[in-house]
Amino acid sequence: MPTYKAPVDDALFLMNDVFHLDRYGNLPGFADASPDIVEAVLREAAKFSEAVLTPLNRAGDVEGCTRRDDGNVATPTGFKDAYRQVAEGGWIGISVPAEFGGQGLPAMLTIQVNEFLCSANMAFAMYPGLTQGAIAALVVHASPELKQKYLPKMVEGVWTGTMNLTEPHCGTDLGLLRTKAVKQPDGSYKITGTKIFISAGEHDLAENIIHLVLARIEGAPAGTKGISLFVVPKFMVLEGGKLGPRNGVSCGSIEEKMGIHGNATCVMNYDGATGWLIGEENRGLNAMFVMMNEARLGVGVQGLALSEVAYQNAAIYAKERLQGRAISGVKYPDKPADPIVVHPDVRRNLMNIRAFNEAARALVMWTALKADIAHRSEDEKERQSADDHMGLLTPVIKGVLTDTGFANTVMAQQVFGGHGYIAEHGMEQFVRDARIAQIYEGANGIQALDLVGRKLGRDGGRAMMAFFNEVSAYIKEKSADEKMKPYVAPLGVALGHLQQASMWFMQNALGRPDNAGAGSYDYMHLFGLVALGYMWCRIAEAALAKLPKANGSAPRMNAKLTTARFFMERMLPETASHLARIQTGAGSMMELPDEAF
Amino acid sequence: MPTYKAPVDDALFLMNDVFHLDRYGNLPGFADASPDIVEAVLREAAKFSEAVLTPLNRAGDVEGCTRRDDGNVATPTGFKDAYRQVAEGGWIGISVPAEFGGQGLPAMLTIQVNEFLCSANMAFAMYPGLTQGAIAALVVHASPELKQKYLPKMVEGVWTGTMNLTEPHCGTDLGLLRTKAVKQPDGSYKITGTKIFISAGEHDLAENIIHLVLARIEGAPAGTKGISLFVVPKFMVLEGGKLGPRNGVSCGSIEEKMGIHGNATCVMNYDGATGWLIGEENRGLNAMFVMMNEARLGVGVQGLALSEVAYQNAAIYAKERLQGRAISGVKYPDKPADPIVVHPDVRRNLMNIRAFNEAARALVMWTALKADIAHRSEDEKERQSADDHMGLLTPVIKGVLTDTGFANTVMAQQVFGGHGYIAEHGMEQFVRDARIAQIYEGANGIQALDLVGRKLGRDGGRAMMAFFNEVSAYIKEKSADEKMKPYVAPLGVALGHLQQASMWFMQNALGRPDNAGAGSYDYMHLFGLVALGYMWCRIAEAALAKLPKANGSAPRMNAKLTTARFFMERMLPETASHLARIQTGAGSMMELPDEAF
Q1: Contact B414 A439 (CB under 8 A)
Q2: End-to-end CA distance of chain A
Q3: Which three-class secondary structure string do you get for A65-78?
Q4: d(CA B327, CA A29)
Q5: What's the mean pLDDT in A5-13?
Q6: Domain check: are A197 and A126 in the same one?
Q7: How far apart are the two ends of chain B, measured CA to CA in Å?
Q8: Domain interval for residue A494
Q9: Is the same domain home to B46 and B114?
Q10: How far apart are CA B19 and CA B12, in angstroms?
Q11: Given A382, A413, B104, B467, which residue has the most CB atoms within 10 angstroms?
């Protein structure tokens, strides 16, 4: 059985020493996030994740969800009670405004808590996670009446939320969407159509399920400009908040899938279900995008979360499993063999994973802080620049953290040898669970296109330039510092590669868009490496500052410096390969006729 | 349901146009392998794989194997009948000497047939595959009596074989092995101990199962020098070949695992089972290595096989699934959307996979040809040089083909978007099945160590130098040819990287072995890229030669040239990253104290 210990100290180090949460006291809600409140919240979330959710993870995978003949879906044993604890603990609404029952604390705290929940039990964590996404969309776009009607119960955890986009013939290309909405005299709509791959679409954890549904109003324009967003409750909500009769929406079946068995992936049938418009007619994608950005950041966190828990278990195994002797000479002569952690190739796996995890956590936290600023700052310029950062980094975080997170679960599994392939050790579940994060919320190829095709050039490249400027100013500032050189010098090289790649697109992709498409995936990963490298510099800086007064944490700070060097020596230089591939353009990639495949 | 079409034409192109099978008529058995015999064998194997094995693949995954209370194991529905057809078709003994009932045809033919079987149904193909491995060990090391007793029935397919190495506390480090063998007055041994992860250890496909078992004879030296190899039949074999009573070996349980559910992975309990020594006492590892080399090549083929079938299904899906429009302009205006094969990032996945598959198939075939020469040539020097090649390339093929094969199943799954995560499409099964190949028969980290620690320096680096000389002579020869330049010029760069890396080890690893361990994995992949790049040059050369008279095959030959260029532009340059990582040495990788993990 896998174990998990939430990295609370690491999260606190990032919040306090790297990102200096205390400097943002002017933002609403941040004053309430004093260091001891933050620590208390994280320690509580850690305890719950470790003690309650971790033991349910493998059992939930084995048992899975079951759809009964009446269309109801049973979640695995123990999920219901655990969900009740999530609701009672107030975990869903940590960062929701107080007027809807939340605590108004910074979003970065929610996102850190979600990492813990997700490491412990990804399939479970999706239920509250999707609810948070739906809440975000309602908060921004719904009318005051709809907010009043739905938000408090969702924040309380009595009701959950979903998002319904995909249809059988329509995934990425939402313009093909067919689900229909017909306006009723009372202002509501009748929704009819079939949605697939709806996570948490039906279950037994909550009294009601609030579906956010994309549909096309009768007579709306074709394509993406004729799509509207609706709220469709499973049970009608009567005056005073009481539940009424079932609405015309039901779960037709649940999918057999590779992983996240504890989460019901539903085919949802809308059969004249009653729904209410969120935001404006035909502006549904716009409203949905709010939810999608939050969701994509959350999916990036899933990649990190599984990488983290897989790492922890691989590290434990590597220190316990005795096999062979160190090639540099016997290390544990009193044992029949050395623990495999002495072998360089085992360390290569472990170092690769931890060098990703710590920087990825920083990148998520940095971006979550920007989300807080974008939503809460009173300074418009500050809001805009934070929003630019969010838009630019969201596809990078989603794509890179889930690709690397998945690869890391595979590496961690490899440390177990044959035992990693056996279900009872739980390592193969991490691999199967992590895999979905590369696919849903926009497959990673779409993230890459979003980055290169939309985000780079937006507003004359403002967001991109701001990112480049920040990183290069940092490099310049720290270059004089001998102790920081081993970190900022390689980052300078990597940033140069990223800038060259960006320039190459400007010069070669306008006339031939395939040149952008062909390089987009490499560009996303090149960008990710630079962003992670920058995070390692910031971490190293904080660790160096802390060391003289570190006392007990000195070994941890020194380990960070070694890991930062490992990243700079062995992971960051991959930027050169990405650049080289980008610069080959679309040529041989696009040359074959379709029928040659 | 996934489909499969065996790449017979490609295999024939490699055999006839690239490796010129007709030039080896002097080797025993090769004269019988006339072009039409070879084609007939391959077409028959293709038909069987496509029509019989493919439909059983997903059903076998869902149903899995079941151990009954009496210790017997039932394989999935249909496996028994399919196995009977394998036996009756003579597929197991294609390359076994005629004196044991085989057909004596080249091993390269068996290996190509095995690719087809494995693409169609990996879990099934392991049953005959493991039998072939056991046959190989018996042919080389067993006494004439044991050969006579066991080989004909195994070749006939009436009995199957297994290999029993791993114990709960002992995987890679066979020196820790505890299973005991006690000599009996009649010359047999009583074997006692527990073996785990025994593929095909128990099943209902054959009348008898012949286990090859590593054990330690009472009083033998500790460590790997006290290990002997035994043959232990499930049922005793009486005079005249009739089956006698059950031997003291039984299946204690079967493992729940990530994939290959159709193959029973058994815990085997040896409880005073009767066995007979194969080869000399305490020289068991030596005997086992024969089997291991064959097995490792076979596992490399599994990586290729799953990459191939995953590619085929992804290509079909990419041409059928309509979603979005080409960024370079609408390609199929009569359809509601373009098929996703028009999108560069989808092509990136497809091109990456096919650029690997075709070269990997060539590399396997080249090495299988060397195996034939090593076993059959009458020229000692030729045998030695072929054996050198085998020893050097086996870990590269095992490690690189399974790593890349797995990564390719993931890429192919990605082409399906959300549908790839759903079991019914079968793509996620390819991922789960392919994963084991990176682990068993020596985890890939062990392959890398075998390559760098044993194979490179052996006999003064003779094998390595021969490989370098062949490739560099080829580059030199072809450099003058304008048409070959786009292929050999990049290969020259890559070979330079490989030579620099080898040099770096010589200069830096003797004094500090961790420097070799830290770079071994990158070195294995660097070596693999150079070998695959060399194969692409050979393929391109043959395609260019064929083009003027190609007629109907011209589009196929042109596609090979484009794919070769893709490999050179986008995959081969990764050698630079591998070299850079190797040259950073063990530093930051080995710096952390064990307890920091």
Answers
A1: yes
A2: 43
A3: CEECCCCCEECCCC
A4: 44
A5: 98
A6: no
A7: 43
A8: 459-590
A9: yes
A10: 10
A11: A413
Three-state DSSP at B353 gives helix
Tell me: pLDDT of B290 over 80: no
Q: Which residues of A are marked as active site?
A: 441
Cβ neighbours of B443 in A, within 8 Å:
414, 417
* Helix boundaries (H) for B93-250: 107-120, 122-141, 144-156
What amino acid occupies position B564?
A: A
Burial of A436 (0-12, 13-18, 19+ CB in 10 A): buried
Same-domain check for residues B16 and B115: yes
The Cα A156–Cα A140 span in angstroms is: 18
When scoring B409, B563, B589 by the number of chain A Cβ atoms within 10 A, the one with the most, hence best to mutate, is B589
pLDDT of res. B105: 96
Amino acid identity at B30: F
Indicate the range of A57-66, A204-213, A281-290 predicted with least confidence: A281-290
Distances (CA, A) of B306 to A330, A355, A498, B354: 40, 31, 35, 12
How many domains is chain A partitioned into structurally?
3
The predicted model gives A436-441 an average pLDDT of 97
d(CA A348, CA B448): 13
Domain end position, chosen among B71, B106, B141 = B141
Residue B286's φ and ψ, nearest 5 degrees, are: -60, -50
Dist. CA B34–CA B38, nearest whole Å:
6
CA angle A328, A333, A335 (to 5 degrees): 120
pLDDT average, residue stretch B443-463 = 96
Least CB–CB distance from B344: residue in A170, A443, A517: A517
- Do B135 and B190 lie in one domain? The reply is no
**Amino acid (one-letter) located at B98:** A
Chain B CB contacts of A422 under 8 Å are 255-258
Inter-chain CB proximity B594 and A336 less than 8 Å = no
Query: Is B543 within a domain?
Result: yes
Chain B residues lying within 8 Å of A432, measured CB to CB: 258, 428, 432
Proportion of chain B above pLDDT 70, given as a percent:
100
**Percent of chain A with pLDDT strictly greater than 90:** 96
CA gap A210, A233 in Å, rounded: 4
Answer yes or no: do A70 and A164 share one domain: no
pLDDT in tens, B118-149: 999 999 999 999 999 999 999 999 999 999 99
Are B514 and A328 a contacting pair at CB < 8 A?
yes
Is residue A1 pLDDT above 90, yes or no? no
Pairs across A and B, CB distance < 8 A? 260
Residue A478, domain member (yes or no): yes
* B529 part of a folded domain: yes
Interface test with A, best of B196, B341, B345 (most A CBs within 10 A): B345
Q: Tell me how far apart the alpha carbons of residues B132 and B139 are, in angstroms, rounded to a whole number.
A: 10
**Chain A, nearest residue to B196 by Cα:** A418
Q: Please give the DSSP secondary-structure letter assigned to residue B283.
A: -
Q: Which helix (H) or strand (E) holds B438?
A: none
Within a domain: B388: no
Helix (H), strand (E) at residue B267: strand B265-278
| ipTM of the shown complex | 0.97
- Which candidate, B136, B200, B128, places its Cα nearest to that of B164? B200
Determine if the pTM surpasses 0.90: yes
pLDDT tens sequence across A142-174: 999 999 999 999 999 999 999 999 999 999 999
Q: What is the DSSP letter of A193?
A: E
Q: Are residues B498 and B575 in the same domain?
A: yes
CATH number of the domain enclosing B126: 1.10.540.10
d(CA A29, CA B228): 71
Under DSSP, the state recorded for A283 is B
Count other C-beta atoms under 10 Å from residue A460's C-beta. Answer: 8
Mind telling me how many Å the CA of B329 is from chain A's nearest CA? 9
Mean pLDDT value of segment B217-231: 96
Residue pair A61/A69 in contact by the 8 Å Cβ criterion: no
Question: Which CATH number fits the domain that encloses residue B190?
Answer: 2.40.110.20
